[in-house]
Design a protein that fits this description.
The chain is of the alpha+beta class and 169 residues long.
Length: 169
């Protein structure tokens, strides 16, 4: 679930959860890190309009990079398919060097070193790219402060995203 809150609400919520939750270890001691996502869509922005129109079943393809270092061809990136079925959301992803994650056409042939799960994600992205003519559409970057529930709340994750910026490709 996502909520838009003001700075005062943010401060109160943050104060209350810091005692009960642990910072996301990917964000170091504080749990803070930057997220940059390159979203793919059709020329008619089908994924965007599916979201706006509230479609209960939808999916989108993105490439995500964490951290604020300049992105190089070998920078670790995640090729992701994020999907929603009614009220359930999930994502499947594979970690690849950034340059390889961008090369959807190369996903037609399986690399023998890939796991079955990685290959399934890549082959689905290849299929979506070819059938929907996916193309880069939007880049979104934001700062994230993330917490996990730990032993007390193992399935709980709370994130605060700030300094949102984006651009159309």
């Amino acid at each position: 679930l996502k909520y838009l809150i003001n700075r005062e609400q943010y401060a109160r919520v943050l104060e209350n959860i810091q005692a009960a939750l642990q910072p996301d270890p990917h964000g170091g001691i504080s749990g803070a890190y930057q997220v940059t996502s390159l979203y793919y869509d059709t020329s008619a922005y089908q994924a965007f309009w599916d979201k706006v129109d509230g479609h209960k079943v939808r999916r989108k393809v993105r490439i995500r990079v964490y951290g604020d270092e300049p992105v190089e061809p070998e920078t670790p990136a995640f090729l992701e398919i994020k999907q929603r079925f009614d009220k359930m959301t999930g994502k499947r992803r594979v970690r690849l060097p950034y340059a390889r994650a961008l090369d959807f056409d190369a996903f037609e042939t399986r690399d023998s070193q890939l796991s079955d799960a990685a290959w399934q994600v890549m082959s689905e992205v290849f299929y979506l790219h070819r059938t929907l003519d996916l193309r880069p559409s939007t880049v979104v970057t934001y700062d994230r402060l993330a917490f996990e529930g730990g032993e007390n709340y193992p399935d709980l994750r709370v994130t605060f995203d700030t300094r949102l910026r984006g651009r159309i490709q």
